[in-house]
Amino acid sequence: MTRAAILEGIAEVARRHLDWQGALTPAMRLVEDLRLDSIRLLTLAAEVENRFRVVLDEEDELRLETVGDLVDLLAVKLQAG
Amino acid sequence: MSDPRPAATLLDLLARGGRRPDGGVRFLDRDEKATWVGWGEVRERALAVGGGLQALGVAPGERVALVFPTGPEFFSALFGALAAGAVPVPLYPPVRLGRLQEYVERTARMLEVAGARLVLADRRIKAVLGEVVARARPRLGCRTLAALPEERPDPPRVTEDDLALVQFSSGTTVEPKAVALSHRAVLAQVRSLGSFLADTPEGRDSGASWLPLYHDMGLIGCVFPSLALDTSLTLVRPEHFVARPALWLRAISRYRATVSPAPNFGYALCTTRIRDAEMEGVDLSSWRLALNGAEPVAPPVLRAFTERFARWGFRPEALTPVYGLSEAALAVTFSALDRPYASRRLERDALANEGRAVDDPEGLEVVSVGRPVPGFRLRVRDKTGRDLPERGVGRIWIAGESLMDGYLDDPAATAAVLRDGWLDTGDLGFLADGELYLTGRAKDVILLRGRNYAPEPIEHALEGVPGARPGCAVAVSWLPEGGTGEVLGLLVERRRGATREEIAALPDGCRAAALRATGLAADEVVVLPPGTLPRTSSGKLRRGEALRLHLAGELAPPAPVTPLRLATAVARSRWAYARMGRRGGDRE
Hints:
Chain A has helices at about 5-20, 40-50, 60, 65-80. With about 80 residues, chain A is mostly helical. In chain A, helix 1 (about 5-20) packs across helix 2. Chain B is of the alpha/beta class and about 600 residues long. The chains are: A mainly alpha (about 80), B alpha/beta (about 600). Chains A and B meet through helix 2 and helix 3 of A and helix 9 and helix 16 of B.
């Protein structure tokens, strides 16, 4: 899957489950820019897992800061799986 | 068969569990696949862990921190620590997707406050605890259960006076308060809860829960009573519930659970996020006690939940608003079990400004949380400690066997709330016909989604936001009339001389800063002129008063300063300092 397709998949999750209306760019920070509190972060994590059929590890996911970081992580996961 | 002697410690409960084939814990994964561990098996695994802990050098009474997701390992670690004679301290696992730094700081602080000798953690969580352990330096480090030596424990000598459990009463906080509960307190609470549960030839209650096990309502409210009743408890992981709330209701239906608690926000989440398709074949008629506590109960949520899920057999009389707090081990009051929730409408002005509860058919609706549970007494008192008559709004004081010993190693904080066997809950309310109604809080606590947060870390986070006046912001939460849950508000004074651009950007800047530091999203940010927030004579911000004024629309800036007024004030101030024999003061 291309990085652009992954980004679009994340945007779809954000629109559907987090009522996100604007565009989504890799530079956006999950907490500050997407305004995700812990419950919404959890929702994003779970729905991204559903959408991409992957399981994220605590070790990886806790180091994420931006949408781009999440795209990178998913790219690696999808290639491995 | 019942034991002649009542259980005195959690170890007694553990020793007696597992006599019935249907007693145990069922863990559901996110695909609803079940893993069953009977209470006898829980005990066997706990003994193995307990032996390992003793071999490692964990001494009786020492604290062992536990960081696990909901799963069999949590039970092995919790009861294992008890089997070693140690004191378990369940802690929050990291939240998902980032904000690791805040987690590291908070958790390291909790380990220090709890005086933890050892951290037991899930394998995946241990991998991210490195920095936490490096900071707090528990003497025996951090281990997974698999890394413990294999030994059988020497049965520890544990009495009912010994500490059973340490639990933290709030999430994000500068100085987390560790609530220390004796076996006597926990067992008293378990007996009290047990008085509401049925164990008759016609049927025995069984539980279902998605509540975190590091939270009192999940652990003391669900796990211990299920063990005491030797019944089944079905557990959904909290993170799975939040992502897919239908898992909770489906679990109740599938396993015919009769008792299941949640805070208000859990019920609200079900009404907004569950799709009809997910409810196919679900039957909620077994659900006898839908306990609702840990945060203020919002009447619109109760109505919406009842209406929405009646189709699937949900019984309105199952809804049972309750009141409790970690300092009381959990429950303090329960509303009547056999009726739908009860509420009163009260005149707003008398309630907010005169501290009186006066019926008014057009007034503010407040839900009854019922009467004290067995073993508890309750008083509503004024500021000076005098008992108020019914319908007088005041501070709620409670006394009972399940009160905490105190905050761990913190006599000052303990003395501030515990007096002569009575606990000042810091909650405000009134009694009417013997039933308790909660109207607010005198303590500075943010209460969101069933969890307590101290306001200070949120306020500190706002210090550096451009345009904000340092040290002049308060974080408050309240249940808006007609709302579905408490909202978080930031009341922020702008800096003198702040530019128009800075002022315009303040709300967004404050939201982002609060989120980054604490993970909490503010619902409302109010920018105020300098000097608006009310303070005490010693200059401390008065959060409760600020909130009251804000809600009354009376949060106004101080009288404009004219040159003459200023000159007078300066002269007075100089005179005052001269009299005190020292010069100057803090400049802004």
